Amino acid sequence: MKLLPTVLALLPLVSAFTNPTYIVSNNINRQTQHNIPSSTVLFSTPNDDQASALSQKFGGYTSKQRLREEVESPFRKVRLAFFGFSSISAAVAFYFSAITALKSNMGFEGMIPFDEALIQVAINAGGAIGFALLANRELKVGQANLDRIAKGGLLARLPVEPAMEGESKRTLKEYRRASRVVIAAGGEEYINQLTLSLNSDQLADTNTLPSSLANVDIVIVPVLLNEQYQPVNTQEAWENANPSETDRNFDHTRANEVVAFPSELPMWNEYLKSDVETAKGQGYDVLEKGITITVKKNGRILRRATGLPPFGDFIGAMEVADGSKFGMPGDGEKYGSD
Questions:
Q1: What is the DSSP letter of 257?
Q2: Is 175 among the domain residues?
Q3: Rounded CA separation 210/177 (Å)
Q4: Which of 68, 174, 306, 323 shows a CA-CA span of 20 to 30 A to 52?
């Protein structure tokens, strides 16, 4: 109990070393009290050198991505260190227990019974293997998180050119909080079907898809893939779609308000490559069936699927799947939800 006052007195110093923002906040308080100008408050915003350092890659990932993974799983390194050291410790114990069992079996004096020695060997071997498996699992989960974070960052940087005249090029990040983006990638016939479904009347019905999709903040990004599954010029294929006898009043500009075309295709190829390979590995014909990636307003993936986008689901349930219930301010007023 006598140590308690000393420990409490040292806590601010410990926090200062483990939490840099503690120093900044204290400096700000002192500035407020004494009205002394200082540049310390500027440290809260990274300068160009700091931003450059965070963007540098090592091991395939940037420092910023690694920091984000640590923020999401702050105790992963602690668990990894614990499991790793425990596995090494159990392996050392296994070595000595195995020697003991060998000596006991050979009849050395002063050794524990051979049966007990075998039990210790089994326990230590199980501990070494078990903790090693747990450590390996932490490594794999951490790697998967880094892959997800890196791919999410690439998704945000993907550039598109809105089909509406007068609108400038933008990145998918700029659609966040305002729109849900649906990436639809496939071969020429797939893009042809997608174009006709949005821009022509089907049979005797009037096509109201574009306006209905606009009402639920949907943006469609069609991506034409060539025979090597690489993105190519989509806008030309979109404008030159061939209507069938069931497609009436075709006009490729009809859905311009909800369509944006991919730009800087090498970036799109880098992003879509893993999704295409996954779909192919599952036996899907990506060029014929196509793949869709639905991105929520918060920038996270809602779902990945094959085939044409399920427009009916988007119109009927998107406000529930990605509305105010998912923490997007403003959707409550628009959709009348709590």
A1: G
A2: yes
A3: 20
A4: 174
